[in-house]
Each structure stands twice: as C-alpha cells, then as structure tokens.
C-alpha cells in the first residue's frame, strides 16, 4: 500500500518501509502531523519500494531490517544503485544492530526499535539539512555512490555506550585492547608530542587513565575511520600526515576547552569535531584524487583559498562534505556545526561560545597538513571579536605555540 503522491509537491520525499502493517500504521499516525513539512510514503513491501525508488527518487528512506521478500540491507543496496543521493536509514531491533553494522555499506544511519516520532523526525531533519549543504547534485551523487564511504566504527559505538553506562576506565581500556592493530595505532598517537606526556605509554588502559575516556574514544574514532580509506597518492599530503593533523586539531580543541573550563560534554564535542573536520579531504583524496589536485592547482594559480577552489571544482568544500558525513552519523548538532564551519565560523550565525569556537582556533593554530600554512591568515578574527573573547584566543594561541615548540 502507498500514500498518493503529488508530483508538484516541492517538499522532501521520505519513504518508510516495514512489512508489519501494525508498525507501519503506527509510523503513519506518529508522522501525520508533519505532512506539512515532508511528503511521506509508506510501503509494506520492500520489492515495491525498490521499484518505486527506481521510478521516482526519494530524499530519505527508512526501512526495517527483517522482511521476508528482501531484507533491509538488500533493499538499501538497490536504492544506493538507482538513487545514490538518497539518505539510507535502517530501523531495527536492538539485537540485530551488531549484525547489521558488519555490512554497513548501503546504510548511513541506524535507528533502534522502538523509535518515537521525535527521534525519527530528528534524523530526517538532519539528513535533509545536510543534503541542502551540498549545492551540486553531482557531488551528492558521487558521495552516495561510493560503496566504501566511511562509516561510524563499531568499536566507537561500543565505547560510547560504555561511557554512557559509566564503565570504569579499566573496562574502557580492555575494549580497546581487544583490537591489537587499533591499540598500536592509538598508542602511537598518544605517545606523540601532541599530548605532552612525560612518560611513554605502552598500555591502552594507562592511556585511558591519563587522557580520559572521551579523548580516547575520539582517537579511536579517527583511527578506525582512517583505516576504512583505501591507499591513495597525493602530492599535497599523505594519509599519515592528515591523521596526525586531525589528531593535533582535536588535542588543541581539547586543550582550549580545558583552559576555559567548559563542561565535559562541550569538550567531547569539540574534540570529536576537531578530529572529523578534514574527513571530507580524506574522502576526496581517496575517491576524487584528480579533482582534488585540480583544486590545489586552482588555488595556487588564482591566489585564492582551498575552500574557494573546492567550491569551483566540486561545488562544495571538504568541510561541508565532512559535516555532511557527521550529520549522517547522527552526531550532535554542535559537532556537525564544528565540522561544517571549521574554516568559516562567521557563516554559522552562532554568536555564542561553542565547540566550533575551539575547533576553528585549533585548525588555525595547527601546522595543518602543509608546512607553509600561516595561522594568522586563516583565523577568522571578526568571529572572535563578535564573541568578545579576543583576549582568550590570544591565550589559546600561546598554548598552541608552546605545544608546537615541543614538536618542531
């Protein structure tokens, strides 16, 4: 069964699929009052859903996992092939999530049953908002069609759940220690001069005790995401350099938060945004290497910023791509904002101190992935003047340069 479609309706189109009529009717009742914002279509057959998407594209699809004709992953694989720009979400029972996340290729998000209307609407809102960030359909098509687009790591979800349940630092360390390769990479980062530790750390549990569970979780997130990207050749930077830079920005954002004595949640969001802010650059380097090289060449030839060159070549900046992915992964709005506007905070319209404030300064005061970066050239001073915290930013700069001196 399907609701009647209006071909002239300009609203975002959302398709919901579940073979259980009771659940589908419940979703219809929950979402009925939001029909002024979205055009909803409800189907109890995944086969019909696949055929409908092929006939007419949708902006978002939310599907159940277990269905007799075709399971949710198979349906989303077909949707990805015929409508790669469609945001793809699986709605399923909690016990099925672990199995689903091992085959996350066609899925962008996961929602666990039972799921209320506010949770579903929030996911739809965020998905559509992030779609609007990218103003060139061909770029959405490119991102949506990449089968190995980075996904939120399973072990990161496990760490976040453990932190939410107030697991001990020892238990956090034990989760990380189960992945030998991850432990080695994380300890390599922890022992870099970025963290300024006075002793070499060889045990994940000890690293968690010294840096805290949230910081370690962010390092795990970044490390596992970088593992998903295939090897690439780029004249501007290597994957290792980009990982080191992302780590540096995350550490600086964390340090600035500590100087301002922000809340733990604020600090965690700033650190996460700092680590994710160049995810789009990593993705472009792996999957659109020639176009990215053209962007750098365009910036040098015309004396413009990389962001301006990226808009010319791709129609969007790598920060916008990073923000798009963070939004798809359902990170808090403060994280998405910190990623999306990390190089242009004035465009955010946010006039209050936010994780974005720390991330932009951290990006500006880091060396970046290129040795010739000029921190003063990229700092959005007008933004901080608007916040009336120029003196605090000067203190952040001193802290960043002190760290720089330890890692010449």
Outline:
This protein is an alpha/beta fold and 408 residues long. The chain is built from 22 helices and five strands. It has helices at residues 21-31, 46-55, 72-82, 97-100, 117-133, 137-145, 154-164, 169-177, 180-190, 204-211, 213-228, 239-260, 264-276, 279-287, 289-302, 306-313, 318-328, 333-340, 355-365, 375-378, 381-387, 390-405, and strands spanning 12-17, 38-43, 60-64, 87-92, 109-112.
In whole angstroms, how far apart are the ends? 65 Å
- Return the CATH topology of the largest domain: Hypothetical protein af1432
What is the name of the CATH superfamily of the largest domain?
Hypothetical protein af1432
Outline = globular
Query: How much strand content do the residues show?
Result: 5-15%
How can the largest sheet be summarized?
A: 5 strands, parallel
The low-confidence runs, each spanning 5 or more residues with pLDDT under 50, are: 1-9, 370-376
Can you describe this structure?
- The N terminus is likely disordered.
- Helix 7 packs antiparallel against helix 8, helix 11 packs parallel to helix 13 and helix 12 packs across helix 22.
- With 408 residues, the protein is of the alpha/beta class.
- 59% of the residues lie in helices and 7% in strands.
- It has a five-stranded parallel β-sheet with strand order 2-1-3-4-5, sandwiched between helices.
- It has two domains: 122 residues, Response regulator (Rossmann fold, 3-Layer(aba) Sandwich); 177 residues, Hypothetical protein af1432 (Orthogonal Bundle), CATH 1.10.3210.10.
